[in-house]
From TrEMBL:
UniProt keyword annotations, A-Z: DNA-binding, Repressor, Transcription, Transcription regulation
UniProt organism field: Nonomuraea phyllanthi
Entry-linked PROSITE patterns: HTH_TETR_2
InterPro entries in UniProt: Homeodomain-like_sf, HTH-type_TetR-like_transc_reg, HTH_TetR, Repressor_TetR_C, Tet_transcr_reg_TetR, Tet_transcr_reg_TetR-rel_C_sf
Entry protein name: TetR family transcriptional regulator
Listed GO MF terms: DNA-binding transcription factor activity; transcription cis-regulatory region binding
Keyword Transcription regulation: yes
Stored Pfam families: TetR_C_1, TetR_N
GO BP annotation list: negative regulation of DNA-templated transcription; response to antibiotic
Keyword flag Ribosomal protein: no
Length: 286
């Protein structure tokens, strides 16, 4: 069975890279449609996004939009890549260590989701990434490629950080949506749960933490979680260096090192790895 354009991911790739896009007619173009979709989702979330509403916002018929984009799902892919191209603030300098650079990437993703909360609502693993999303992914990968981690570990680390940012952002979206529907804030709702709190005195650990003020000024979930996540990655990197020192592999890439018959043992498999190690030391990573 031949797939329609709305079901063809290859067609979405062409749209994301603006290859073979329909020629813009006066007043309507793919870029305008995508920007209108972003504005609508910023105001109403993904639940409020439809091709009809985007068309109304632009002053065109719904059918006129389909000449430029096959459907809502493809529009969301285009919207995600559009906002991913926004300039990120507070980025780390190129000479900073891996931790500062990876943290800066995570914070940039967090700030992006604070500006566009609907990003956290985009679920599933079959959303086609565009050039801006891939550029951000490339930047994150580059922060930990020369840390001694294996290629699979580099990809896993970046995926872990990305999922953490998404999960924390989704919690904010869900809390805001619940507050909008109910008209009651989180603090007010929990403040009215006296019948529950009366039953908690039978749990001594919980009671002690409550009485000691553990719930009065809780840690910021994003800040606490990001710091602990980076701590764990730092420990993994340190373990990789220690294990390679023990096995005699290259301290940068882990490849076997031909050792001389006499004299000082070699730590690097090539001049390139030696230079990488020097750059890391001068950047304050070692």
């Amino acid at each position: 069975m031949t797939r329609g354009r709305a079901e063809d991911p290859d067609h979405v790739v062409e749209l994301l890279w603006r290859e073979g896009a329909a020629e813009p007619r006066p007043g309507l173009s793919l870029d305008r449609i995508v920007r209108a979709g972003v504005e609508l989702a910023d105001a109403e979330g993904l639940a409020g996004l439809s091709m009809r509403k985007v068309a109304e916002r632009l002053g065109f018929t719904t059918m006129s939009l389909y000449r430029h984009v096959p459907g809502r799902d493809q529009l969301i892919d285009l919207m995600c890549d559009e906002v991913a191209g926004e300039t990120a603030g507070g980025s780390a300098a190129a000479g900073d260590g891996w931790r500062a650079r990876l943290e800066a990437c995570a914070r940039a993703g967090w700030e992006l989701r604070r500006r566009h909360p609907w990003l956290a609502e985009v679920r599933g693993g079959r959303h086609v990434p565009g050039p801006n999303i891939i550029a951000r992914y490339e930047q994150m990968l580059s922060t930990v490629t020369d840390t001694g981690l294996t290629p699979a570990e580099v990809i896993a680390v970046v995926g872990l950080v990305g999922r953490f940012v998404d999960s924390e952002a989704l919690l904010l979206v869900e809390a805001a949506e619940t507050e909008r529907r109910s008209g009651v804030s989180e603090e007010e709702w929990w403040g009215g749960r006296d019948t529950l709190f009366e039953r908690l005195y039978g749990y001594p650990t919980l009671t002690r933490l409550w009485e000691q003020g553990g719930f009065d000024r809780p840690e910021d979930p994003f800040e606490f979680g990001l710091a602990r996540l980076l701590d764990g990655i730092e420990l993994l990197i340190r373990q990789r260096y220690e294990s390679r020192d023990e096995t005699g592999g290259c301290v940068v890439c882990g490849a076997p090192v031909d050792q001389p018959a006499a004299g000082r043992p070699r730590a690097y498999c090539s001049a390139s790895c030696r230079q990488r190690a020097y750059r890391r030391r001068t950047a304050g990573q070692d």
